[in-house]
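Just curious: can you write whichever protein you like plus the matching structure tokens?

***
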Amino acid sequence: MSPSVKQYLTIDQQIELLRSRGMEIDGDPARWLRAVNYYRLSGYWYIYRALGNDGQGNLLRTDEFLPGTTFSTIADLYEFDRKLRTLVHDGLERVEVALRSHVSYVLGARDPLAHENPAVFRESFDHAAWLADARSRVNRAAKRSAFIRHHAEQYGGVIPIWVLVDVLDFSDVSILLDGMSAADQYAVAEGLGIRINLEALKPLQRRKALKNHPRARWLEQLTVVRNIAAGFDAIELHGAHGYLLHEFLSPVTNRRDDRWGADRAALLLATVAAVRAEMPEGMPLIVRLSVDDVAPGGSQAADSAELARRLHTAGVDLVDCSSGGLVAGAEYSPSPGYQVPGSAVVRAAGVPTAAVGVITDPRHADRIVADGDADLVLLGREMLRDPHWARRAELALTGAASLEPRYHRAYL
């Protein structure tokens, strides 16, 4: 057996290991370890592991538990999480079942086989592709579902919409709803008790609701409400690293001869307008850009500075400045702050920016902002590596940490 593979431990050995690391063993740990698994429970006791120092000023988790950590506390935390997830899943299931039901009622009232008729749907809806996927799911379901075989025997395999909706994936139902006519979409929403007050909408929202833009449908509105209710402080659109918006922005990939090619920024600007219309007043909107495509014939910093000005005028509060990611094989030389020059160019155009790119030293981050190269510094991998980076930064820059004394022992 490879020496890098952890050795097997019996339940009793697992309990003794926890005890040796300072956990108070109470309750019935053997039952929990058998039923749930040591590894799964380790995610719940992680926060109770004491913090140590690596000798270089960096905090890390040790194998020792904080004083007073009991096994019953871990079991209670797991049980709370299990019940919370059950409640969430219950709510999601209610939403899913209700949507399936009302889609089937609205289409079924037209024709039991309305889903087979492309004339029932929007012209822009790829009905043929959707129907092919739906039939494929029916064929797979027939191998394991008695009610599908029943329809094959009794009705020659003809599946009405109210049967089909229970075979489809939820994504299939969502796509189907997206392709339904304006009247049918509103009928589904009305059946679910969701009504759109047009007078309460902003002008852009109202125009799209009158056309019944897909964002006005109930499923999308539920998503917007859920995300805002989740407590997000800002929304960031990803227009970098070769994703769809970036592909439209770059001359390397956008060679279209329609309006989306005549102005390569058109799709991003339209997206900004649509998202801004849905956002609460005062919520910041951020756009991430590859300031330099790092590709022959691609966009460079000056191009992105001009784009950033247009975005700022359209309601973007901050540009998150990255680079590349559009083509394979691009040559990079990642080093501390290597993306900062792009941020400086965009900021010089009068647009607030964020700098990224191997920024790990608090003093370096502070200098970037002080020098005017960015309005703020964003950390990704470094915060994953060191979740306590903010405290380390405060200590490095001020010599003190603004923690209440009762929290100090968490960092001993």
Residues 71-110 form the longest helix (40 residues). The first strand starts at residue 49 and ends at 53. The beta strands are 49-53, 59-65, 235-239, 285-290, 318-322, 353-355, 376-377.
